[in-house]
Amino acid sequence: MAKDDKKKNNWRDKYRFSVINDHTFEEIWRIRLTQYNAFLLISSLIIFLISATVCMIAFTNLKEFIPGYPDVTMRRNILMSAIRLDSLDRELALRDKYFANLNDIISGNAPTDIAVRMDTSKNYKAINFNTSSRDSALKTRVENEERFNLTIGPSSQESVTSLAGMHFFPPVKGIISGKYELRTKHFGTDIVTKPKALVSSTLDGTVIFTGWTMETGFVIEVQHLNNLVSVYKHNASLLKETGDLVRAGEPISLVGDSGELYTSGPHLHFEIWYKGSPLDPEKHILF
After folding, report:
1. Which pLDDT belongs to residue 1?
2. Residues near 133 by Cβ (< 8 Å), separated by ≥ 6?
3. H or E segment at 59?
4. Helix ranges (DSSP H) in 115-230
5. Which of 198, 58, 64, 60 is nearest to 138 (CA)?
6. Residue 175 near residue 228 (C-beta atoms within 8 A)
7. Which of 207, 205, 221, 203 is nearest to 167 (CA)?
8. How far is CA 165 from the centre of its chain?
9. 3-state class of 272 per DSSP?
10. pLDDT at 50 (0 to 100)
11. Taking the domains of the chain in order of start, what are their residue ranges?
């Protein structure tokens, strides 16, 4: 019993640690601790050091010094490569579908719709399809603008043998900010107008492409008679789908500034292609 009591007393005994000047023997600093307090102090210090080390590695750039861990540049390159690969895969699918639709139209067949992948992360059953005030306002606006449209009736399928005899409907009215320049490969005309303005089809035709590209945003292309194709880029949204028949002056999209390149504000980039060669829109249309 005596030895056990002595051990218990030793565990609670106090000890003093001092720092003494070697020359004057003056006590500069001291601390009194028991074995229990010393154990708690050392344990707390070890836990603090471990926690601080983990936090520094997890939340700072020190983790880049760990062998095999990618640095910031490598992780950024991996992310950008994954994004480019996904965009390239989509662009290839859209290109194949575009050529297939173009081949069907030339052969006299109806073009196929572009299949859109369903986003499984959204609950489509909870979507409310009731008309909104914006839809009603847009419908009223289109009806007012189409009231005096001379091409609303049946159109003639007679082929036009000369471009000089064709009447091109201006897609939008506005200020020209960029002209057709073959030297700089700017194959169209940029027209600045108010955002969300209606973009109209320049001639009767069939929509052969609707989609989105990283450079030019929402794009719609219309195939006309006499091997003419009109292209409308940087739209805010599209009102038609691939395969729709449109008349001259019929709204097909809304003006916007979509796309990550070649845009600095709301405008329409408009192109006309004749037998695979670009034309200067200003020579055929008064904007």
Report:
1. 47
2. none
3. helix 35-59
4. 133-146
5. 198
6. no
7. 203
8. 41
9. strand
10. 92
11. 2-64, 71-112, 167-287
Name the percent of the chain in helix, strand, coil, to the closest 5: 35, 25, 40
Mean pLDDT, consecutive 10-residue stretches, the chain (287 aa), reads: 54 77 83 80 91 84 72 79 86 86 78 61 69 75 66 43 76 92 91 92 94 90 92 93 93 90 84 92 88
Long-range contacts formed by 184-187: CB under 8 A, 24+ apart: 187/271, 187/273, 187/278
Cβ atoms < 10 Å from Cβ of 18: 10
CA 195 – CA 256 distance, rounded (Å)? 6
In this predicted structure, what is the pLDDT of residue 8?
54
DSSP symbol at 181: B
Of the options 2.30.40.10, 3.40.50.2000, 2.70.70.10, 2.120.10.30, the CATH number for the domain spanning 167-287: 2.70.70.10
According to DSSP, residue 109 is labeled P
What is the model's pLDDT at position 38? 79
C-alpha to C-alpha distance for 236 and 277, rounded to whole angstroms = 27
